[in-house]
Every structure is written in C-alpha cells, then in structure tokens.
Amino acid sequence: MSAADLSVRLGAMTLANPIMPASGTFSEDLADVFDLDLLGAHVLKTIMRGTRAGNPVPRVCDLQGGMLNAIGIPSKGIEDFRSRMLPYWQGYRAPLVVSISAHTLDEFARLCAEVSLPGVAAIEANISCPNIEADGNAFAMRPDTTAEVMRRLRAETDLPLWAKLTPNTGEPVAVAQAAEANGADALVTANTALGMAIDVRTRRPRLGNGMGGMSGPAVKPIALRMTYQCARACTIPVIGCGGIATLDDVLEFLIAGASAVQVGTATFQSPTVMARLVAELGDWMQAQGLASLSEIIGSVEMPEGEAA
Amino acid sequence: MTLSPSVLSVPMAPGVLPRCAEARCVVRSNLPVNGEYRLLTLDAPPEVLDCQPGQFFQLLCPEPEGEHPFLRRPMSIYGYDAEAGQLQFLYKVAGAGTRGLATLRPGGMLNVLGPLGQGFSMPQHWQDLLLVARGVGLATLAPLARAAQRSGRRLTAICSARRPELAMSVDLFRGYGAEVIVVHDEDGSSTPEALRGLIEARIAAGRVDAFYTCGSSRLLRLLQDLGQRHGIPGEIAMEQQMACGLGMCQACVRPFREEGGIVQRRVCREGPVFPLLEAIA
Ligand SMILES: Cc1cc2nc3c(=O)[nH]c(=O)nc-3n(C[C@H](O)[C@H](O)[C@H](O)COP(=O)(O)OP(=O)(O)OC[C@H]3O[C@@H](n4cnc5c(N)ncnc54)[C@H](O)[C@@H]3O)c2cc1C
Ligand SMILES: Cc1cc2nc3c(=O)[nH]c(=O)nc-3n(C[C@H](O)[C@H](O)[C@H](O)COP(=O)(O)O)c2cc1C
Ligand code: FES
Question: Which residues catalyse the reaction (chain A) (predicted)?
C-alpha cells in the first residue's frame, strides 16, 4: 500500500480518498470481494419511502462501450433502511451516503427528514433518475424544479446534501446553480443518459421498460463535460461520475474540476476496480511527488479564449 | 512466455474470506462437442476452485470480430477439479459473448469471476435422485451428478433433446453411475405427457426422493405438478439476464411464490438454484 495522502475535502466532509461507488452499482455483496473500508465513502442504492417492485425484465442490456439499465428503483422502503441497512453500514469507518428519491415534493422532504439519522454522513438527492417517470422526466431537468426540490430538502436536514444531476437537461449550468443557490453542499455529475436499444429481429426494445439509462465508458465525455461546466460555474464541490474505469479516467475528472469521483458500471466488468484505483492513485501521487490532490483538482488548461 | 493462472488480489477486511474472486485463467482447450455446443477447459487458480454444483461464473468474453460484448456472461460450472486446477464450461454459441468465447485458443487468457450464487443442496434423506434436463441445462446438472455419485446416491438422468444425437452428456452421466434415459422430440418421447407417464411409473415404484431440473418452463410445470401430487421436493436452476452477478444491481430478479405472496429474488445471489415449488414458470 502506498503512503500518499489521498484525502479530499467535500465541503465540511473529509474523505480518506476520492474513490466511491455510484448509487445502484454497489451493495454489501461487494464485501465478498474486497475490504469496503478501502473506499472513500459508501453510496447506497437509491431508496424510496414505500416498497416498490421495480421495472419488468430485461432490466439491462449491453452496448458497445456501455450498457443500458431500467432497474426502476425496487425499494424495500424506509423501515428496511432503518432496521437492517443502517446498522450494517455503521460497522464501517467509511462515511455513509444515503441516496433518496421520490415522486412528489412532500414525499421527498419527508424521506429526507427520516433518513437524517446518526450514522449517516451525507444525503445524495437523486433528482435525476431517468427510470421512474415517463420519458426520463426528473426534477433536475429544469432549474425551477431543481430549486424547488432542493429548497424543500434543505429545510429537512442538517446533513451535507448532495444533488445528483442529469446529463439529459439542456441547461446543465442553470440547474447546477439552482441546486447550489437552494442549499446543495455538493453536486454529483452525473446520472445516466436516457437511451434506447431495439432488437431488429423482434422490433422490440431490448429493455422491458422501453427506454433506460446509459452508463459506462461511452458516456464518459458527456459526464466529464458536465463536471467541467458545473465546477466552473459553481463554488460547491463537484463529484464526477460516468464511465470511470481507469486511473486516467479518475485523473481526467479531477483535472476537470471534480473533488471526488464515483465508479459505477466499471464494477460490473471488474468488481475489484475501485480497490485498484485507490492503490494506483496513491502510486501515481508518489511518482509525481504530489503532496495533495488539491494540486490537480480543477487544473485543466483550457485553450486561449475559453473561460476556465 | 507461458502464462499462468492467477487471481487479481485485493485486500480483504480482517477475518473475512473472499467468497469469490476475479481470476485470469489460461485456456487449455476449447472444443466443439457437437454442432451447437463447445466445451471450454481452463487452468484456474485454487482461489476460484472451491465450488458447489449449481454455482456459476461470470465470464469476461473476448470480442469476436465486429462485435462488442460489454457485460460479463453467466455460465454454469460444468466441471471443477481443485487438484488438477481445472474449470470447465459447456456453452452454446448464442450471440456476441458466446461467439467471443468460441474464438479462445489454447494458451489464451480468460478473465472469470466466481464461483457465484447458491448451488444445489442434497439433504441426507434425498437418496433416490431424478434429474430432468434439456439442452444446455444438462451442463448445470453435470457436477451435481458427480457429487451424487460421491455421496452414494442413486441417480436417474432424463436427458431431453431435439434429436437423439444431440442428447449431450449421456456418457458423462453414465460415467457417474446414473441410469440414463434419453427422450427426444423426433419420436415424441420428450413431450410433457410422455414424461409424466415415465416419471409416475418410477414414483409408483418408490424410486424418487427428489427432482432436480433447470431452465425449461415446460419441465418446471410438469415437475411442480408431480411434486405437489406426490409430495416430492426438488430444486431448479434458473436463468435471468445479469449485469453484476454479485447481487448489487437487481437486474436479474424473478418472481417466486412465498408463504405471504409473490416476492422478487435475485437469480445471481439467492439463486441460481431455488426450491422447485417456489419457482414460477
Ligand atoms: C446462472 C446462469 C447459468 C448459465 N449457464 C449456461 C451454460 O452453462 N451454458 C450456456 O450455454 N449458457 C448458459 N447460460 C446462458 C448464457 O448466459 C447466455 O446464453 C449468454 O449470456 C448469451 O450471451 P451471448 O452474448 O452469446 O448472446 P446474446 O446475444 O447476449 O443473447 C443471445 C440469447 O440469449 C439470451 N440471453 C442472454 N443473456 C442471458 C442470460 N444471462 N440468461 C439467459 N438468457 C440469456 C438472450 O436473451 C438472447 O435470446 C446461463 C445463464 C445463467 C443466468
Ligand atoms: C444498474 C444501475 C443502477 C443504477 N441505479 C441508480 C440509482 O438507484 N440511483 C442513482 O442515483 N443512480 C443510479 N445509477 C446511475 C449510476 O449511479 C451512475 O450515475 C451512472 O451509472 C454513471 O456512472 P458509470 O458510467 O460509472 O456507471 C445506476 C446505474 C446502473 C448501471
Ligand atoms: S446480476 Fe446484479 S443483482 Fe443479479
């Protein structure tokens, strides 16, 4: 193990390293593969208040350089979170980030209050899931709905509140600024891009739900662009997410302005990838003689004339 | 340079043993078994060879020309031998992933993740076992047959296929001491009605303690009906499209009957083997 200091600050929080899982691609099952305390934080699958069955199968299909999913947030509800999940995750040192979502403002606010419990380090508001409303609609598609939901959530919790944004919006900067202005402590860029695939033989969509969210290396340039745009336009920290699989991917997001990153789909290809990225980042820091990751975060050199 | 099998080793929490591992295996052979199936034999590191019959691996398939399988593909363990350091898969070439597997040559590398899922159970009082399987489902039952022989059970295997010459694994099951009955579509011996008669005769003779099957909905419905009528338990290995294979993504759910109603279970984690009567065809 390298001795490099990989710690990063996210507002009031300090993470031991900037590598954490993306919501929905991580669970206690990964503890069968490596020590989960190697991670900078633990981000859980989005929960909703009530129980939900989720979408019909097939829930995933693969593509060149990525995949589509329409899992649809099957949820065992808030009670299962309190009685089973929270005690389990409290057994780790890594800070616990709880992802929440809801259809209505009232439900969202109520859930936010209910999960603000000891042992929870931060709340990630999934205001960007393309799989729970028709046509991928979500709060984070527009600045006004983003402002409204973040204001309601902010009123319910003193915990750090992260807003997970969507690449499907045409106004990513305005949405990011609306989240910041209404109490977000950090932004996560980004959730999946709404996509579709059709089986030409049957003429049916390859996902049971018709459309779904695209993730993996193919979406990395979009997530990186959005990370750069949001980091440039906001003062709160940005957490990059989308297609990260290698050390260079991590560095690209940090250089673009991310203070930390989330790894999702890459874990499906290689469940050990996050443990490797932590080790490789440490080795890289030492080889570069860097004392702190703050030296590279946001260090992108934009061409003349381009606002950095 | 000769390659040797190895695991991608990562730190575990103190006192925790990895349940499965990501490993690089070396291809020993990859041979056609008949027109549709291929047998892949790998040299594998010991860390992935503590397997149970019914478990599976997630294979990171190489890209065949012009195609790009992205997710790992689940494959039942056909054979495993910790002493010989060997792992085997029997697969049917279906699409991009399995076409990629077919390109593997001796000496090549394959990244595997496993062993995964819950295998078959074999309680002591299940002494007379009846295996009923069709097509590539036979691959899943092969290691079960070996385990049954080792623990001295009596075994009957009904191998169903389109044509008699496609009934794979007949010799293999015989080698494990099974009485093998081949049924096929061409003479009508594989229809549920024909099988029902065959199986009921054996039940009447007191020769079935448990059923084992996989895949086929028609076989499942038949065995569930017979199981209910005659009070015979059993297990089924099921399939579903997967992404992670570890229980994280919830892609692979199927509905099951439970006391309180219908529940969704993950085929990769709670399965792929389930109690016969709880499965839904
Ligand atoms: C636990 C488990 C064990 C399996 N064991 C074996 C085995 O021992 N031998 C074998 O040949 N096959 C086995 N399969 C099925 C095998 O995983 C699929 O045939 C394979 O993933 C197809 O991939 P492909 O890229 O070649 O074809 P694709 O083009 O992806 O698919 C071809 C066809 O296979 C179907 N399919 C794809 N993935 C799956 C899947 N995960 N489960 C069921 N159907 C699927 C598709 O819907 C399509 O109809 C198993 C599946 C599971 C879930
Ligand atoms: C199978 C699957 C399930 C997901 N579930 C959620 C979820 O519940 N909540 C959420 O905010 N994002 C979810 N996501 C999105 C990821 O957290 C991440 O934003 C996205 O996949 C992009 O990152 P990646 O390319 O590294 O996977 C899911 C992604 C996948 C592939
Ligand atoms: S394949 Fe991910 S939970 Fe089963």
Answer: 129 (nucleophile)
- CA nearest B224: which of B281, B141, B174? B281
Whether A69 sits inside 8 A of B68 (CB atoms) is no
Residue A257: how many CA atoms within 13 Å on its side-chain side? Answer: 23
Residues 6+ apart with CB under 8 A from B83: none
| Helix, coil or strand: residue A159 | coil
Assess contact for A261 and A250: CB atoms under 8 A. Answer: yes
Q: Say if A30 is an interface residue toward chain B (CB within 8 Å).
A: yes
At residue A80, the pLDDT reads 94
- Please check the confidence at residue A2 and state whether its pLDDT lies above 80: no
- Kindly report the length of chain A: 308
Alpha helices in chain A (DSSP H): 77-80, 86-89, 105-114, 143-154, 172-181, 220-233, 247-256, 266-269, 273-288
Tokens of residue B180, six digits? 């093998």
Of A243, A285, A259, A184, residue with least CA distance to A14: A259
Instruction: Please tell me the distance in Å from B22's CA to the nearest CA on chain A.
Output: 7
Q: Which helix (H) or strand (E) holds B224?
A: helix B217-230
CA B250 to chain A, closest CA, distance in angstroms equals: 7
| pTM, rounded to two decimals | 0.96
A176 lines ligand 2 (CB under 6 A): no
- Give the start-to-end residue ranges of the domains of chain A: 8-295
Q: What is the largest CA-CA distance in chain A?
A: 57
Q: What is the mean pLDDT of residues B147-155?
A: 93
Q: Confirm or reject: Cβ of A227 under 6 Å from ligand 2.
A: no
Task: Please determine, looking at this structure, whether the domain spanning B128-278 carries the CATH number 3.40.50.980.
Answer: no
- Model confidence at B162, pLDDT cuts 50, 70, 90, reads confident
**pLDDT higher than 70, residue B131:** yes
Q: What share of chain A has pLDDT > 90, as a percent?
A: 91
Q: What φ, ψ does residue A264 adopt, rounded to 5°?
A: -115, -95
Ligand 1 in contact with B114 (CB < 6 A)?
Answer: no
The widest CA-to-CA distance across chain B, in whole angstroms, is: 61
For A8-295, give the CATH class: alpha beta
CATH of B6-116, one of 3.40.50.11270, 2.40.30.10, 3.30.450.20, 3.40.50.280: 2.40.30.10
Each domain of chain B, given as residue ranges in start order, spans 6-116, 128-278
Nearest to B43 by CA among B120, B126, B106, B134: B106
pLDDT of residue B1: 53
Does A33 contact B13 at a Cβ distance shorter than 8 Å? Answer: no
A59 alpha carbon, closest ligand? 2
For residue A14, list its beta bridge partners: A9
Query: What pLDDT does residue A27 have?
Result: 98
Mean pLDDT within B270-278: 97
Find the closest chain A residue to B242 by CA distance.
A60
